[in-house]
Amino acid sequence: MDLNSASTVVLQVLTQATSQDTAVLKPAEEQLKQWETQPGFYSVLLNIFTNHSLDVNVRWLAVLYFKNGIDRYWRRVAPHALSEEEKTTLRAGLITNFNEPVNQIATQISVLIAKVARVDCPRQWPELIPTLVESVKVQDGLQQHRALLTFYHVTKTLASKRLAADRKLFYDLTSSIYSFACSLWNHHTDTFLQHICTGDEAAAANSLERTLLSLKDNILFLVLRKLTVHGFVEPHWNAEVMGFLHAVFERLKQFLECSRSIRAESICRDRLEKTIILFTKVLLDFLDQHPFSFTALIQRSLEFSVSYVFTEAGEGVVFEQFIVQCMNLIKMIVKNYAYKPSKNIEDSSPETLEAHKIKTAFFTYPTLTEICRRLVTHYFLLTKEELTMWEEDPESFTVEETGGDSWKYSLRPCTEVLFIDIFHEYNHTLTPVLLEMVQSLQGSTNMENTNVILIKDAVYNAVGLAAYELFDSVDFDQWFKNQLLAELQVSHDRYKPIRRRVIWLIGQWISVKFKSDLRPVLYEAILNLLQDRDLVSVLFFLNTCLPVDDFEFRTDQFLPYLESMFTLLFQLLQEVTQCDTKMHVLHVLSCVIERVNIQIRPFVGCLVQYLPLLWKQSEEHNMLRCAILTTLIHLVQGLGADSKNLYPFLLPVIQLSTDVSQPPHVYLLGDGLELWLVTLENSPCLTPELLRIFQNMSSLL
């Protein structure tokens, strides 16, 4: 393909390919597909997307076709592979300048350069890294920005290669650029701090944008995160690496202090907080990949995190995501198996013993006590926003509380996981502390004192989370009879958090330490909650305290409550609106049906009539349909031969669930096959309708 004559033609076809008219678009796409394997086509594309005077949409499309071509035709062994001569020309053209004005196109160019680097760097492309380093040093802001962006994607790609030879090349690359990356990071950080200290928020925002770029998207996040974490075999022997990590703590302190002088809602504050989080990620990644190299940082990490999260030092500067990161850092140190000596001390490595010694020296009784009390009485407390959500939308509140985000990213689950890990590790020290907190809250509660109610909720939460650790220290049966049962019966509106927490607490202990003889009393309490329509307490019970879903369940104890319980649960199933909640209620109903078996028959009429409607309403919710299938399985088993009365609804459900030509089968097939099997096992005779479902079998086989 002659470049001069082809450029005009390719440009015209690319322009047509950006059209919204399918009559114009489709032929253009077909033509471009034919050109993909033509020699010189990618050189033409390079000329087009680097020509800033052309239409942005055309240049965008050109860079996408170029990137896709690299995936398909760059490697030597690929069919229709590009010639070495053309690849040499393309490599040179890609790094001629870094002045792309459009951010989206600049990102795509950086990605495609990284794709080429994965195959060719450094053997066929030794000039790439030196060129990038020189471009980063220039004073022009746009060129430096684009070079940094490319540097990030290239290094990210090279860091992901895992073959021994590739790792060796990456170690060599790290050695050659690490000092430069540290220097660049320090320069940008100092510039920002200088601006913020003089009160120039606009200049600081501009400076911080480059700092954030060099950290997250480019030099620092790549070189001083990717390279620090992946660029050294034993990083603790490298003075620059350890110096950088120690400097991270100093920079974090400086940035946190700077945040005091920045308006809370400003763009600068938002960028500053993002930068602080990225700093902490370097520490977390390094600890995860190099626990023994991190030993020298254990003391400082714990001092820093505990100071900001559990003392007054953090007041006015910490924010939720930073607290989460600090708690994750403490958790990873506390729970790290590399820092736990063997039962036989002689079998432990010196590195493990040293790390354990540092941990033991730090976690003294006063420190552990303060952490425990602060977690429970500060971080476990329900917030005003949560209480408002409870009042306005109790069902959503319950779903969020019991589901929530991953412990790594959301504050409440993160604090609870940290409490569990610290309590498990230091239970002999913390058990008396927690029991003292429980003892101080026993007896009647002042309904006018909201803070006391919230603290009791938090303390009960801690006792539930630490149930296994407290097995020998708490007589839960006596506590249930003497205190908790009475608290379930308090009807005052302000006591809702305690009723909710008590039923959750029982759910945590029921599989740990709860006498079977007390089950009838518990069933009475649950019936009262259902009858009182205490939705949040009931839903927490359904999520954590299923009385029929454990090994201690006795049918004879439950039968007196079966009709009332089943009727009220069915009413609840009709009332709730969220898919997750309906699934939880269906799960409980399924458990009840499974455990009482044929004795459920007098009470299932209403459920049998409702399930077809629920099935129709859940057409877009396959997980809810899975729960319906499970309920039907237990219903068929409980009804036995009488399940034939369900066939008008049951058989079409089986037909759909086991038909591999229907998209929902991906979710429904397993439960559908089980339902098909139990339907056959309980069928009094083989009907033509049952036989018709067998048409699905050939595809299944």
Written overview of the protein:
Among the domains are: 1-116, no CATH class; 554-700. Helix content is 71%, strand content 0%. It is built from 34 helices and no strands. The chain has helices spanning 3-17, 22-35, 41-49, 56-73, 84-94, 103-120, 128-136, 141-159, 164-197, 201-217, 219-230, 239-258, 267-289, 295-310, 320-335, 350-362, 365-379, 384-392, 394-402, 411-425, 427-439, 450-465, 476-488, 496-509, 519-531, 535-544, 555-575, 579-596, 605-617, 622-639, 647-657, 665-681, 688-692, 697-700. α6 (103-120) packs across α8. The chain is globular and about 85 Å long. It starts with a helix and ends with a helix. GO terms for molecular function: small GTPase binding. Residues 28-100 form the Importin N-terminal domain. Its main location: cytoplasm. It is found in: Cytoplasm; Nucleus.
